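Why show two proteins at once? Because comparison is the fastest way to build intuition. When a single record is shown, students tend to memorize it. When two are placed side by side, the eye starts asking what differs. So, the first record is below.
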Amino acid sequence: MDNNVLFAFSLTLIAGLATGLGSAIAFFAKKTNTSFLSFSLGLSAGVMIYISFVEMLPNAQDLLMGVYGETTGKWITIASFFGGILLIGLIDFLIPSTENPHEARKLEDMNPEEKKKSSLMRMGILTAVAITIHNFPEGIATFISALEDPQIGISVAFAVAIHNIPEGIAVSVPIYYATNSRRKAFTYSFLSGLSEPLGAIIGYFLIMYFFSIDIMGIVFGIVAGIMVFISLDELLPAAHRYGKHHTSIIGLILGMLIMAISLLLF
């Protein structure tokens, strides 16, 4: 159990720190590779959607039916799934849309002449706060997935990491232009990703002190809902905003195919 917990936490940490990778890319890339980013976001969505509907949700239903019976178990599964969607939806709603970290921004479109430095700094800080709030339930989802099945955990962590790269760009670029400090920009971006391992710690204590078969089933349902919402509300729209619709759909289908094959082989 201890090794599994360490492995799950490590995956969540790596996924969270991908925001720092996004920050680093922002400093070295002069132009956004829209095709690659659109494909990657679509791939990430495909992985999350497939895992949610094929693995996480059926597992939740099996566990809950085993405790409450077929009819009640199915109703609780549905409630858990849409409860997860409601949770992440409320978090998304409470964040000002103008500061939403998932609003697609190209590197070349962000320059110091766009706004005053104070406004840029405010945008960067609010984006960092928004990402921190968004990443918390993602950390729980990654941790729980890895703890339940390491193979699935790796896939979820990969998808979340891809998801976090453009978020790191969204935080670091305005802060860099406001302060002319790469260190400050990278630090804020890096710290915003630490909410994911924090989510993993919370998830660990929930499992340790509230563990039961029915609670795990409910958690799996909630996690599935969170991942589906992230995919449909954030990843795919962001990919489309980069102007590469078909590229993102190809990524989506390929992500599903990769997960389908990996689940059969492993």
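Second record. Ask yourself what differs from the first in the token line.
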Amino acid sequence: MNLQDYFKNSVWESFTASQGLTTDFVVTAAVAMVLAVLLGIYINKIYAHFFGGVVFSSSFAATLVGMTVLTCMLTLAISSNIVISLGMIGALSIVRYRTAIKDPMDLLYLFWAISIGITLGAGLYLLAVITMLVMTFVVFLFYNKKKRGTIYILVAHYESEMAGDEILRVLNKVRHQLKSKTIRGDQTEITIELLSRNNNTLFMEQINKIEGVKDVTLIQYNGEYHG
């Protein structure tokens, strides 16, 4: 070892010793953080690719990357120092998050990111990679199942009972289920949940032409309908 290498090693060892760290821990932390960024970006891309909502939230997608990295960092910090771990547990216990999660799938992605961050912080790299593969398969499986058809809510207003029977006859070839029926004087409101496999809405024109039908509305169902 020459004099230059000696001084480099001395400076590095002095720095790590002053921070209460070891060279092995720094290397492990660097590897874990790099993997956290890469796997966080992967989760971000999976979320963007399989997103099934109406409005895509780029801020939530970016949160998945940050959540993976920060969780990895917290796990590394907790594992390196008992004092830091107690302080972080106390700090996190008083934090309150008020952001509402509307889609249950968003919770899955958040927990996915957090779990990967913890796993990487614990140094279980193989387990993290296996989990990524398994979760990708699960999301792909249920995404394809979901894409077999689109669920809609049909709301129609009509005046005669015969018109209601005719509406059900038109929908006979479509998988449907009656959700509610409200009668207000001479006018009836009917709400039907139906599944369209090829996004064909020709039945709307057929229903609208039925004598006695005042109007018909078709809404894509996203799990937040309140009857």
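One difference worth noting in the second protein: Helices lie at 3-18, 23-50, 58-80, 82-93, 104-121, 125-146, 161-170, 202-208.
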